[in-house]
Write a structure and sequence with these properties.
DNA polymerase, domain 1; 6 helices; 5 strands
Length: about 170
């Protein structure tokens, strides 16, 4: 099935089996291996990418469902020597250990910060009339779909806060 996608700003035309997941298309057909296959059940978040600005688990969606969509992977957020603010903060705050979950964490956090900028509340947001504060509880709730087996959570939270402060 033919599908056209814009991935990290580049147009791609793919002709793949309609059962191919977005994750497998990225990794195996386009060579974008930053997004990881962790659980293959949408429970760990290692495969998180952004589609039209919103974060999704790429292992749970078929590539043919995204015809015409814009996909951003970790490779589209920054490159060595030109890291995104979140990538820089993850390095500075040691927000990774083994690094396996890091691409999904950074993609999810990038979209999460945009959600906050847009004023979207979460389940733990206290004040629905203003932008949510970046409390530990707020960040933990919003990042709950991204697991870190090394338990680098305190450093991930600090990296998110640092990047958010620098972008203001």
């Amino acid at each position: 099935m033919e599908t056209e996608l814009t991935i990290n700003g580049t147009q791609h035309r793919l002709d793949l089996d309609e059962r191919t997941t977005l994750l497998d298309a990225l990794r195996h057909h386009l060579g974008l291996t930053g997004s990881k296959k962790g659980c293959d059940h949408g429970q760990c978040g290692a495969c998180t990418v952004m589609v039209n600005g919103q974060r999704i688990n790429s292992c749970l969606t078929l590539v043919c469902m995204h015809d015409g969509d814009e996909v951003t992977t970790i490779e589209g957020l920054g490159q060595p020597g030109n890291l995104s603010p979140l990538q820089q903060a993850f390095v500075a705050e040691d927000g990774f250990q083994c690094g396996y979950c890091t691409p999904g964490q950074i993609c999810s956090a990038t979209a999460m910060l945009q959600e906050i900028a847009n004023g979207w509340p979460s389940h733990v947001t206290d004040d629905l009339d203003s932008a949510p504060d970046l409390t530990t509880e707020e960040i933990a709730e919003r990042m709950s779909g991204n697991l870190c087996r090394c338990s680098a959570y305190p450093n991930i939270v600090e990296a998110i806060r640092k990047a958010a402060k620098e972008s203001v």
